[in-house]
Predict the structure.
Amino acid sequence: MKKSIVQIVNSQPVRMGDVIIGQPIPQGILEEVNPFILLHHAEPKEISAHGPGFFVPPHPHRGFEPVTFVFQGEVEHKDSLGNESVIKGGGVQWITSGRGIIHSEGNPKSFIEKGGTMEIIQLWINLPAALKMSPPNYQAFDKEEIPSITQNQSEANIISGTMNGQKGPINSPTNITAITALIQQGGTSAITLPENHNALVYVLNGTGTVNGQNFSKQQLLQLSAEGKELEIEATQSTKLLVLAGEPIDEKKSMWGPYVMNTQTEIMEALRDYEQGKMGFLAG
Ligand code: MN
């Protein structure tokens, strides 16, 4: 059975410092696609040689999973667990913040020196109460480590979850499915998702149809939990992020870099960060 399209929303521009980011969720008409609570698309941008590039200095997270999909360019990650890694186009950086982690991210020096095109998506995936205070974890994989399924002029990259027997490298504590699809003009992609998981398709670029419904760039398609199959056709070269996950039926309290269940837990997060309980990372 095919998934149906619940609604299609346009990405909304939001200012982050001196750049404009596309934000399809949250927005007035679509607060979330539970458990996906925030999606930011930094569209392709040329970084000239010697920069300036982007850099987000050390900051904490608790209670959810901030994930960076690197579509073009290079992102360097450092965190309070001691991880340091540079991920290039086609790769992923997946933080399970759990009870607390501090990280910084930005273009590595070597990338800024030569310049290049940057395009990333940042996604916030909620965690259930039972996992909000779990130990923090960081997973990073380059394109070469991510299995792909080639179909009719299309490529589906399985980052997390399983499709056609191919399992993505991310060990997701909540069984999230994350797939990127690159479809050439006239190509098609058939994607099967777990039944009864909420799902969405975000269109980075291109035009086409998902289960017969038209899409164009910077749109997010919210899909039904019922059904499993997606039939995607591209009328122009298309780049998509496909996500599925089990909804979390709990109250949500969000403040800054924390996503908890109650206001009291947010206050505890602020205090624990101040007291150094989320670790340390030199800026
Ligand atoms: Mn962050």
